[in-house]
Amino acid sequence: MRWENLTEGPAGPAALFGAGAVVTRTIDTPEFRGITFHEVRARSIVNRVPGASRMPFEWTVNPYRGCSHACVYCFARKTHSYLDLDTGLGFDSQIVVKTNAPELLRRELAAPRWTGAHIAMGTNVDCYQRAEGRYRLMPGIIEALRDRANPFSILTKGTLILRDLPLLREAAEAAEVGISVSVGFTHTALWRTVEPGTPSPAARLNAVRTLTGAGIECGVLMAPVIPFLGDSPAQLRDTVRAVAASGATSVTPLVLHLRPGAREWFTAWLGEHHPHLVERYERMYAGGSYAPTWYQRMITRQVHELAAEFGIGPARRGRARKTAGPGRPAGPEPAGATQLTLL
Q1: Res. 299: pLDDT tops 80
Q2: Which residues contact residue 300 at a Cβ distance below 8 angstroms, ignoring those fewer than 6 apart?
Q3: The pTM is what?
């Protein structure tokens, strides 16, 4: 790996990690068997989203790189190539852990230049993947955001978020907190092959039920809707019905997109499990990473109609509340503090 290119020294101030800061561990326990952790001390943790991105937020925090959820379609796979790590099995099993993420975040939030903008988490790799059970970075991260009354959102497939429910409730008293759980489908056989390292869709929807029951509004990102495998009218109806039954406050569909890195891995999976669909996918995604606009609109319309039928709606944007918190007086919102959610 090219760690030496990403640490202090010849790489200069743009380095990602401090010199000599990488510790590699292999843990031989059933839940982590086959997974290698690369513990690093990051030099920064609040990242600006590139201007060309389609994401509806400007800042992110990602305490991990790589993800043991092993979703075959994950768009973040390409980021592993920056470390000379494999974007296939390597992405699933070589997990980079930014062990100093909570303390670093606390320092960056206190910097005079930080204006309290919304921070999104779980938008690259899942911050509640299995590694979080060992490293417990999210409690310190949530505490730092709570103490600065800084608005944030979390997107996850991990039911481990329930561990931090008391902290989330405290944070929601100080600032706008948006929680969303990703459930693209409820088909069990499809889940086992396409998202093998995740909790089941039923378990995720139970987490939604627990969050909403505790007074934390929680939406569902219905993602990805997988063409020809999870997009039939009956499948969409079953999924939206289950989402509504969970008490989710909103449901927002997102059709599968296949960026470089993910595209190759997904295509290989498709060739093994559904070879008859390879040619259809080549045609559908011939124009790039995204499905045709007409198809995306069709899925969105069907899901919104079903959501209305079952009594839920699409996500809404709100304003970030600015309340007094340690180190930040209550007052008017700074420019750019509008709460943006992925959902």
Answers
A1: yes
A2: 253
A3: 0.85
